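dumping this here so i dont lose it
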């Protein structure tokens, strides 16, 4: 039987040492999560997620304590470098989002059309500006700037 076998050990049983014992296994997401919810079930405060089977920190998020959809987040590649970071206000992207590739193999999905890194500015969910950079930090191509 394999690593995820129900007849042998489950992924929960194979918790890597990088995952705190307080973290809860979420099988449908294939990861462990750690954080608090308010009385309505909304995520509040600091949350972290670790991806199976490696147990690397994949996301670190801070939710407002009022149960709103306001939050800041950072996602990570397996090598510990960030893959994405930004914030949401009222459930939509707002402010600066930064996405970057990894020089190593990764399970993170990188979507920007060009370059190693993209910096996108949102205003209430709408893209107002986007710049692309190579691995050395040099801007490449023409930036997108909304009119």
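and the seq i came up w/
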């Amino acid at each position: 039987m394999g690593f995820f076998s129900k007849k042998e050990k489950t992924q929960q049983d194979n918790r890597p040492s990088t995952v705190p014992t307080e973290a809860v296994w979420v099988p449908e997401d294939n990861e462990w999560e750690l954080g608090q919810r308010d009385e309505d079930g909304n995520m509040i405060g600091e949350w972290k997620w670790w991806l199976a089977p490696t147990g690397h920190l994949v996301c670190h998020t801070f939710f407002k304590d009022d149960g709103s959809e306001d939050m800041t987040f950072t996602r990570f590649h397996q090598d510990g470098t960030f893959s994405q970071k930004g914030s949401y206000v009222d459930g939509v992207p707002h402010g600066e989002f930064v996405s970057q590739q990894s020089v190593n193999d990764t399970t993170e999905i990188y979507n920007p059309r060009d370059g190693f890194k993209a910096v996108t500015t949102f205003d209430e969910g709408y893209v107002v500006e986007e710049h692309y950079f190579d691995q050395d930090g040099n801007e490449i191509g023409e930036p997108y700037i909304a009119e």
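Residues 1-12+22-68 form one domain.
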